[in-house]
């Protein structure tokens, strides 16, 4: 039966002996990272000093060999980040927006906390405390995003043999704080419409008035449930107002990758989000007006666009909406609020499955957890059913 081999990076028993000049020599056999056993020795004035020196040599030899290629356990965390980002680009498996988000989260949330550590100094405790502190001082969402990029980067370090284990794996589970999706009431929607229609249109306001696209974009969001990027990516050929009801095909999104121009991506946030939705009359009216405005343009021309004919950026629309609502004293409303409102209205009328289908979700679980506002009202039919428990007293009984 074959004898099990000594694990790579380990050494056998240390022997100490005196040599001819009276000094001490410590020696052992070390299984190197090419699988070969090699004799390693160190000399010093005393046996203890020789043994200590030998162990230091072995530790240094292990550190030099643990990492292969661009990374070792002595590499800095900052160097790991550079190698990890280069590896993401080499794989080219992420959408540009996701790649940009990962880099931003790594550089802004994580790197300041770990950049001065060598990889061998990063422990489960350090990572665990960092994530918990971030969740407490910032938000659950930031902590979750930081945990994701840390796990991906350390996973690469493990694959490069620069770390033996991924320290994120054994950190405590993040606990999502209780939260409820908040949709807008009909009254709030009308208040937002009035604020947007009246913004910078009064007498004495300097500069040209708004071009009217913001209020039109809101109507399309309310009629389609689409994300802001999906609305801005709608083309002339995606709209059919000859049908009743009119339809819109949501099959792209607007992205703004770092260092590259804003452009239309040929699929929504996920490939499964592509869908054709029927829209209400108020949305169809807006789309007809936009089609008239671009009647002479090619079929692939965007419905919404800048004064220069380029795609509108999602950040620009968010900033403009925020400025309008702040001026009107309306707080807590983002483009996603309209998406939640659509989900809640559909759920109340026809159930969560239809809401999920409209929003482009593969199941209603995500829709229920993040988009549909909880309904505190119990179906009033319960009152009728519970009449069966009414007292049946005969005359004269109290």
UniProtKB/TrEMBL annotation:
Give start and end of each Core-binding (CB) domain: 75-158
Q: Do you know which CDD domains this protein is assigned to?
A: INT_ICEBs1_C_like (cd01189)
Kindly provide the name given to this protein in its UniProt entry. Site-specific integrase
Entry's Pfam families?
Phage_integrase
Q: Which GO terms describe its molecular function?
A: DNA binding
Which organism is the protein's source? Nocardioides zhouii
The UniProt keywords, alphabetically, are: DNA recombination, DNA-binding
Q: Where is the composition biased (Basic residues)?
A: 261-272
């Amino acid at each position: 039966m074959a004898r099990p081999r000594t694990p790579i990076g380990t050494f056998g028993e240390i022997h100490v002996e005196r040599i001819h000049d009276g000094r001490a020599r410590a020696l052992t056999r070390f299984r190197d990272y090419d699988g070969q056993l090699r004799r390693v020795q160190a000399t010093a004035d005393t046996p203890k000093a020789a043994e200590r020196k030998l162990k230091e040599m072995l530790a240094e030899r292990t550190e030099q060999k643990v990492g292969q290629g661009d990374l070792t356990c002595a590499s800095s965390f900052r160097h790991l980040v550079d190698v990890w980002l280069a590896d993401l680009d080499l794989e080219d498996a992420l959408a540009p927006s996701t790649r940009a988000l990962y880099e931003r989260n790594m550089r802004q949330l994580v790197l300041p906390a770990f950049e001065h550590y060598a990889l061998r100094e990063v422990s489960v405790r350090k990572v665990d405390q960092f994530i918990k502190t971030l969740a407490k001082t910032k938000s659950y969402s930031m902590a979750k995003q930081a945990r994701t990029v840390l796990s991906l980067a350390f996973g690469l370090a493990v694959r490069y043999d620069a770390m033996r284990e991924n320290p994120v794996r054994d950190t405590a589970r993040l606990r999502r704080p209780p939260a409820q999706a908040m949709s807008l009431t009909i009254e709030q929607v009308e208040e937002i419409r009035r604020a947007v229609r009246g913004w910078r249109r009064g007498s004495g306001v300097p500069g040209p008035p708004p071009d009217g696209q913001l209020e039109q974009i809101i109507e399309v969001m309310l009629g389609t449930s689409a994300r802001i990027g999906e609305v801005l990516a709608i083309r002339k050929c995606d709209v059919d107002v000859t049908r009743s009801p009119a339809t819109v095909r949501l099959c792209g999104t607007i992205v703004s990758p770092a260092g590259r121009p804003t452009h239309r991506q040929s699929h929504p946030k996920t490939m499964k989000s592509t869908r054709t939705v029927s829209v209400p009359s108020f949305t169809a009216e807006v789309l007809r007006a936009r089609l008239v405005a671009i009647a002479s343009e090619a079929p692939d021309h965007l419905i919404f666009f800048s004064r220069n004919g380029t795609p509108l950026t999602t950040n620009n629309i968010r900033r403009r909406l925020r400025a309008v609502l702040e001026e009107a004293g309306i707080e807590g409303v983002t483009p996603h609020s309209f998406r939640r409102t659509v989900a809640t209205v559909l759920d109340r009328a026809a159930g969560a499955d239809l809401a999920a289908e409209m929003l482009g979700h593969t199941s209603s679980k995500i829709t229920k957890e993040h988009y549909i506002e909880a309904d505190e009202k119990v179906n009033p039919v319960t009152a009728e059913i519970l009449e069966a428990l009414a007292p049946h007293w005969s005359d004269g009984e109290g």
